[in-house]
């Protein structure tokens, strides 16, 4: 018990998050450890993005605490947080004119903020990250000529170049085709696992979460939530109540799948 | 490879600055040649040539370089701070405040010392006014800062018009020269050169943070930039640089707007490269513009601000067309 507690990467206690009057998260208790892969599920407006931004210290929260490697996160310097936590934004990269390589280099900012010249080591890390997402050939391309999927892979490569210990991913499968969704995210996961880092991925894709993630945090109405091992949380009952829609589990030889069924469109389930 | 191209650009611009300075030293009503210039310190040179070079042309060339450099650096910073490509050093009202101070001094018939004091206090007042209005109402955002600056600037414009319409013909002439930017009376001191160097050093130190900030506030926060502190520093840095330039030479237009864009078009998007390049090119540009200003319709002189606009407007249109066609 003490051994696993010492390895806690992020400890969330009694966390309350609201936007205006609306309570999104209420008394959330969660321990995230190195080497874990978390899915963050919940219907539109449940607070997935807000929670990710809160954990990355981009916005204030209303109660409780967040400890990063044993220290309250709001007592850390912003750069110290950026050395440990990387955030993939849902809206992707901004299209400020630059090349693929220049854009990916920005991920190294927390490591080199006051150095004027790029270290060979930094360039090496960035090129390796680009290679992981098959972007090395595009290194000198202007980013406004990339496709949506290439841009998303670039955003993932920049995040890997940042080398945080906690990867917060907001809809990482956005703009990726069905093959890249799986290969890209599996590549990212193996990279994360290899470094004993952790990923927490907000997604609408239950099936992707069930294939990639070993733990799931499922947000429900009024700040309620389910948390635990993926197999325990991803049940027909939990999902149906969280999404306000009947969701059925289908077991096939290719794995477990979840799909919504509309038996009676007017029926409303209460959580 | 990239580093080589960057060094090449800086060296080219440095060479350009030297050529611009020589052009400026050699142009004027008294004909001098390059050979005269190199023989200058010797006793064979006429007293007059020495005087013309050291007392008239060299100080003026130096002022032009310093003012152009300061304005270009301020322009780069303002465009990042306001995340607006049309931002120039004057957009937040610094020059308006300085102009009201300077024009009041002219109106009162004060000496040139009081003129620059007036400009200094006017600029300082405007910087603080905009800052407190923009921040006093709570969190200061880019859009609030921009709107406050533009509104205050418009207010100064009204005051300037009152001063112009109520003045006598004689004073209006010197007011107009001041408003359009004029280097004939300006002298730079070691203080201005130190400010220039401090601006360069500070700019280079913050250049990586600027590269990140331009990606957007959220992205910058996530990469560890303390966005509100950085904005605060940028606002005051750009204001001080602009105020200094305006105090030396009045409101010389277009340098701070056009030079950063020109260099971005040439591929200097990284602020580690953009900042030194903009300072060199801005300085050279203003040296050349000032040389033309005093020779084009000699013996009469044009305000240098007119020449920068005459060169700046078509250049800007060409750049704009180029960037639009590239996007298409």
Report the order of strands and helices of chain A.
Answer: HEEEHEEHEHHHHEHEHEEHHEE
Rounded Rg of chain A: 19 Å
Distance between the termini of chain B: 29 Å
Number of strand segments of chain A: 12
Oligomerization = heterodimer
Which structural class best describes the helix and strand composition of chain A? alpha/beta
What can you see in these coordinates?
The complex is a heterodimer of chains A (271) and B (328). In chain A, 41% of the residues are buried. Chain A is 35% helix and 27% strand. In chain A, the strands form three sheets. Chain A has a six-stranded mixed beta sheet with strand order 6-7-8-3-9-10, sandwiched between helices. Chain A has a four-stranded antiparallel beta sheet with strand order 2-1-4-5. Chain A has a two-stranded antiparallel ribbon with strand order 11-12. Chain A starts with a helix and ends in an 11-residue tail after the last strand. Chain A is α/β, with parallel strands linked by helices. In chain A, helix 6 crosses helix 7 and helix 7 runs parallel beside helix 8. Chain A has one domain: P-loop containing nucleotide triphosphate hydrolases (Rossmann fold, 3-Layer(aba) Sandwich). In chain A, a hairpin with a 2-residue loop joins strand 11 and strand 12. Chain B is mainly α and 328 residues long. Chain B has a single domain, classed as ABC transporter involved in vitamin B12 uptake, BtuC, CATH 1.10.3470. Helix content of chain B is 77%, strand content 0%. Chain B is built from 13 helices and no strands. Classes of the chains: A alpha/beta (271), B mainly alpha (328).
